[in-house]
Amino acid sequence: MVTKTEESQLNKLENQVENGGGGAWEYLCLARKLKARRSDKVLKYGLSILNDSRKRSSLGPDEWTLYEQVAVAAMDCHALDVAKDCISALQKKFPESKRVGRLEAMLLEAKGSWEDAEAAYSSLLEDNPFDQVIHKRRVAIAKAQGNISAAIEWLNKYLEIFMADHDAWRELAEIYVSLQMYKQAAFCYEELILSQPTVPLYHLAYADVLYTLGGLENLQTAKKYYSSTIDLSGGKNNRALFGICLCTSAISQLARGRNREDKDSSSDLPSLASAALEKEYKLHASDKLSVLTSTLKCLRVSS
Amino acid sequence: MGLGFTVGVIGVLILGHAAYSTIQYRSLLKITEEEFSGPPMEVVLELLVGLLFCMWAALTVPGKFLSVHPHSDENRVVSLPENVDFMIFNHRGRAFPSEVGLKLKH
């Protein structure tokens, strides 16, 4: 989970390195730790360290981790010859390594030769049938080829064995959302919330899916999860604040035909949410404040 | 940090001195064969002063305390890490090479 301090630190380091102020190695370490996908910067500054033999030798044993990081970044930027060079350097140092074998298979994937990559992964799996990363790469191959149903099948098989892998649950939820299978996506998000209840972004995604499904119970549950997101993120999550206003307006629209239940006990929640939103907009985007106030007024009027 | 460290050392020395005075007081009482009810008033004051010094040093020397609240402004979760295990490489960025001439030079 990337916290606000870590994100601001990463951006500060990035600015510093871009403007020529050094600190490239700290930037690369932080990017690796936070798993941020900034491949173009990683490639540029990683190569500048690796090409300078003095800086390279000062890294010590971390040099090989840097090779791996630069190889993956090069594959992401489609600089395949750079990736090939890094991988051959790693191979010279670690000849029989599984990790390097995995990188080679990823290079085949990046080149687009899917069958060769599949064959490489299958041979790696024969030696070690419980390697989680290789199973996940097979799902990625299916996804990259556009074969989403095969990706879902592989991912479900993977999750039957490794049920605690929350990255995989998250990936499955996103795939289901992209296919508009919202009920299954809601199930995946429920698993995520069960295993990591203090991450507000899972609550937010779950509430979004419930709001999309619609229906009175789903909207009420979505409102509860938007509130829990606001609670867990200290009130700074604008999307959850908007979610509460939209949910309230949708619920009152649905409940207009039926008897008006006395849910006025929670009627100060949407007004509090809109007040918080207006305060945020005044602080950060004051020229859009008028748009916000008119939108909020429409939401309350139409209810 | 230097000041905090010095104050801490002084506090420990004061406590040591208080312990020494108490032991001396006890041996004096053994000579005059009286009961040892507790250390004299001055030693108690000295103990309190030593305690304050040591506590102040313990709080100042380690440096800035970090926040523990998960929803405070520094600690709140802003984004999730990218799902690196499922990263695919045939995205649209393939058509835009970032910089020409990037090479590993050995």
Automatic annotation (TrEMBL), chain A:
InterPro entries: EMC2-like, TPR-like_helical_dom_sf, TPR_EMC2
Keywords for the protein's UniProt record, in alphabetical order: Endoplasmic reticulum, Membrane, Repeat, TPR repeat
Pfam families xref list: TPR_EMC2
Protein name: ER membrane protein complex subunit 2
Role noted for this protein: Part of the endoplasmic reticulum membrane protein complex (EMC) that enables the energy-independent insertion into endoplasmic reticulum membranes of newly synthesized membrane proteins.
Membrane-crossing residue ranges in chain numbering: none
Topology class, membrane: Peripheral membrane protein
UniProt family annotation: Belongs to the EMC2 family.
SUBUNIT field: Component of the ER membrane protein complex (EMC).
From TrEMBL, chain B:
Chain coiled-coil ranges: none
Compartment(s) of residence: Endoplasmic reticulum membrane
Subunit structure: Component of the ER membrane protein complex (EMC).
Keyword Cell cycle carried by entry: no
Membrane-protein topology: Multi-pass membrane protein
Main location: endoplasmic reticulum
PANTHER family, A to Z: ER MEMBRANE PROTEIN COMPLEX SUBUNIT 5 (PTHR21181:SF7), PTHR21181
Gene Ontology CC terms: early endosome; EMC complex; Golgi apparatus; plasma membrane
Lineage, broadest ranks: Eukaryota, Viridiplantae, Streptophyta, Embryophyta, Tracheophyta
The protein's name: Membrane magnesium transporter
Pfam families documented for this protein: MMgT
Keywords on record: Endoplasmic reticulum, Membrane, Transmembrane, Transmembrane helix
GO terms, molecular function: inorganic cation transmembrane transporter activity
Family: Belongs to the membrane magnesium transporter (TC 1.A.67) family.
Organism, as annotated: Linum trigynum
Transmembrane segments: 42-61
